[in-house]
Amino acid sequence: xxxxxxxxxxxxxxxxxxxxxxxxxxxxxxxxxxxxxxxxxxxxxxxxxxxxxxxxxxxxxxxxxxxxxxxxxxxxxxxxxxxxxxxxxxxxxxxxxxxxxxxxxxxxxxxxxxxxxxxxxxxxxxxxxxxxxxxxxxxxxxxxxxxxxxxxxxxxxxxxxxxxxxxxxxxxxxxxxxxxxxxxxxxxxxxxxxxxxxxxxxxxxxxxxxxxxxxxxxxxxxxxxxxxxxxxxxxxxxxxxxxxxxxxxxxxxxxxxxxxxxxxxxxxxxxxxxxxxxxxxxxxxxxxxxxxxxxxxxxxxxxxxxxxxxxxxxxxxxxxxxxxxxxxxxxxxxxxxxxxxxxxxxxxxxxxxxxxxxxxxxxxxxxxxxxxxxxxxxxxxxxxxxxxxxxxxxxxxxxxxxxxxxxxxxxxxxxxxxxxxxxxxxxxxxx
Length: 431
What we know:
Blueprint lengths: L2 H5 L2 E3 L9 E2 L2 H12 L2 E10 L9 E9 L2 E5 L9 H10 L4 E3 L2 H11 L6 E3 H7 L7 H9 L1 E3 L15 H12 L1 H14 L3 H13 L22 H21 L3 H4 L2 H9 L10 H8 L12 H12 L19 H7 L1 H20 L4 H4 L2 H10 L5 H8 L3 H14 L10 H4 L1 H4 L5
Helix pairs in contact: 2-3, 5-8, 6-8, 10-12, 10-14, 15-16, 16-18, 16-20, 19-20
């Protein structure tokens, strides 16, 4: 056997104790709870949703494992949110740590069921803080435990019933070694002196409230940057709102009813004398972008939405720019606010250097949005207090405050190094 063959990861094909039956009755749920209560240590947890298929973000499968407590696949659909057995499960989970991978993806659907972890370990975020280059579940299992994980069912429609056996096997393997993976990541964090950083990050995830509803969410429709006329904006708004309403009613992902690209194409076709009054007229507009038959299933609704927008009085049309507390684009800073721009260039350059020294992704050292807001506002009080108000954690504040304080004193921007070395922090500026 060659050295290269020895280094190949071992495929993880099935749970060590076999694939368990799906828990879909109260009797089986109670049995699973009893088994889990007899186990020890943290709970490995995961959830599967039907993203891209359904409007709702509900969980369609819950996977949970514990040393000595077995591995269990719970179908939440027969029980529903707030069921007494989910309350019992929540009480049980509160007795120890809950391990999730990329927890912010799964926590909303778990909370909908009544599952609210009180102590968290996120293996994905832990891997980032430890400085690992690839932090997906598969790559982490390969690099730290020497096993490979197939991901061929990651994007399937988990609302399907009954769930195919190979899908269930895939789901079970997501938690099969999660406890062992947690221990490996934790050891790396401990060796790097980053354990407290991770604990603060995990606590922040659990304590951060849900984000407030977006203002004018329709303005985030793909292709909006091509649309400049207010009447066309009204068409986007009308179609977007009609699509969301229908998607919620049918529990279908909005893009499957009418894609963002289709909405933008329809809006751009609207001129002063344009009339879209038939299915054939819609087909003519959508065919160049790759017409999908499903887009026309509700053509009467779309035509009505377009007409509603076209019949609005001028004063009822949406403004070209919506209300926002977003900062001006950085390219505007350079021209109109040179001191603020100078501070930002120095902050970005030195924060990037510090993140490299700490073997830490820059966005995990500090939010780029926080950096821009500090440099823009030039706080009259302490920088650390301003960072705390924005939501930065204690460990972040301790590291970045001196860097930002020094940057705010600069009057000339960094020119040569800024474009290349600040690339990472600029990635989020367009969003």
